[in-house]
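Feature request, filed as a ticket because there's no other form

It would be nice if the structure record came with a short human-readable summary line next to the tokens. Right now we just get the raw output. Example of a typical job, pasted below so the devs can see what we mean:
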Amino acid sequence: MGRQSISLTEPNDNWLKSQVSNNEYASKSELVNDLIRQARGQQQKINWLSTKLERAKKSGISNLSPAEILEKSKATLNGSI
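Raw output as currently delivered:
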């Protein structure tokens, strides 16, 4: 496991400390790793959506309404489809 030294602003450091003191996390490192995992997951979803939007743009006009397209996309993201 890689070790890093980072500098935090006081408000961010205080927030991290509060999460640890509230027993949400065992350490600041655990919390930072969890935040990075969440950010990576969000980036994967953004990349997936960007790819879908680019394909849709290239495929032409759809017979679905914008609401139907949004609902179908949400279902796919959530693993329902």
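Something like this underneath would help us a lot:
The chain is about 70% helix and 0% strand.
The mean pLDDT is 91.
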